[in-house]
């Protein structure tokens, strides 16, 4: 079983600001969310724990499982470029993403999907036929993209619909 968790709350989540690679660690509420998730998942012995390299995702993974997370850059948050840390209401969007014609450094969406799918393809190739419990800790974008790996990319292109709320999780099987 694959457990996909979204990191707990940070102050940027609380302030409704875009949070990319300049994100913050968990705040008190985020730590409590991770502890609550640990309680929900306490009977599961995780064979592998993977995480985005962002501190908030690593913290969540390690609080939930009590194990050291294996970091993989392919699980890193979508690069928001110059839109990072701006208030959500101030950012000019193109669909669910900051407008890359206005903000420098915004990651190309197809490149993002390819890197996350590459991680999932490798995971499936190595462990897909085995009875394992694997936890992956990420962000709204990465957890949504992983959902799209299993469910297919939506016709409107909005992968975020497959994500969960902060401090929550979804499960999938290969």
Brief rundown of the structure:
With 174 residues, the protein is of the alpha/beta class. It has helices at residues 11-14, 28-40, 55-65, 109-127, 140-151; strands at residues 2-6, 48-51, 70-71, 93-94, 97-98, 134-138, 169-172.
Secondary structure: number of strands: 7
Radius of gyration: 15 Å
The residue ranges in which pLDDT falls below 50 over 5 or more consecutive positions are none
Distance between the termini: 8 Å
The largest sheet is:
5 strands, mixed
Q: Helix count?
A: 5
Give the neighbour order of strands across the main sheet: 3-2-6-1-7
Instruction: Give the SSE order as H and E letters.
Output: EHHEHEEEHEHE
Strand content: 5-15%
Describe the global form: globular
Given helix and strand content, the structural type is alpha/beta
Helix amount, in percent?
Answer: 25-40%
* Mean pLDDT, all residues: 96
Could you explain the architecture of this structure?
There is one protein chain. Helices cover 34% and strands 14% of the residues. It has 174 residues and is an alpha/beta fold. The protein is globular and about 45 Å long. The termini are close together.
Walk me through the topology:
Layout: E1 2-6, H1 11-14, H2 28-40, E2 48-51, H3 55-65, E3 70-71, E4 93-94, E5 97-98, H4 109-127, E6 134-138, H5 140-151, E7 169-172
Parallel strand pairs: 1-6, 2-3, 2-6
Antiparallel strand pairs: 1-7, 4-5
Helix pairs in contact: 2-3, 4-5
List keywords for this structure.
174 residues; alpha/beta; five-stranded mixed sheet; 5 helices; 7 strands; 34% helix; globular
